[in-house]
Amino acid sequence: MTVTGQRGLELWALRRPVTVTWNIALKFLGTQLLVEFHQCSPELLDDVARVRDILLEGTRRSGATIIQETFHEFSPQGVSGVIVIAESHVAIHTWPEHGYADIDIFTCGDRVDPWVIQRYLQERFKPGHVNNMELKRGLFTAPNPETIALPALAEKTCHEFHELHEMTMSL
């Protein structure tokens, strides 16, 4: 949950560049995967029961805590569904006529690996082409990372991470 590195800043003093470098620690509250599956089976993408079962099983395999789920079958075709998890959500929208599925996997903390869900979904939907984008959400810097005690990050829910973020930002 911490990314460290060097960051440089150029300052101009008397028309000469001066570079000031300091260490920063970036913290983040969650990881979001934006996934696109192309060239999937149109029949599978239009079957709300199978899409639901695949998403639920992938979510279970990740160890996420499922709170609630809802899925809808559109007419004439297509499925949308959301699984609310204690760690955030897993969502899908399908366009069977294009063999395309758009998936959003967002997990707070580091207890649940969103890539476990992505890999299972890819195995089951068997896309011909995949686009993945990983985003670190809730980025912030700690004023002095060595002095901030972050309690048991692996056990935090999104709400608890938001409270922790607010507490850290007020230091």
Could you characterize what this model shows?
The chain is α+β, with helices and mostly antiparallel strands and 171 residues long. It has four helices and nine strands; from the N terminus they run βββααββββαββα. The protein has helices at residues 42-45, 48-62, 114-125, 158-169; strands at 2-13, 16-27, 30-38, 66-73, 79-85, 88-95, 100-108, 129-137, 140-141. It has a six-stranded antiparallel β-sheet, with helices on one face. Strands 1-2-9 form a three-stranded antiparallel β-sheet, with no helix packed on it. Strand 1 and strand 2 form a beta hairpin. Helix 2 runs antiparallel to helix 3 (114-125). The chain starts with a strand and ends with a helix. 23% of the residues are buried. Residues 1-14 and 145-155 have low confidence and may be disordered.
In short:
By secondary structure, the protein is an alpha+beta fold. Helices cover 25% and strands 44% of the residues.
List keywords for this structure.
171 residues, alpha+beta, six-stranded antiparallel beta sheet, three-stranded antiparallel beta sheet, 4 helices
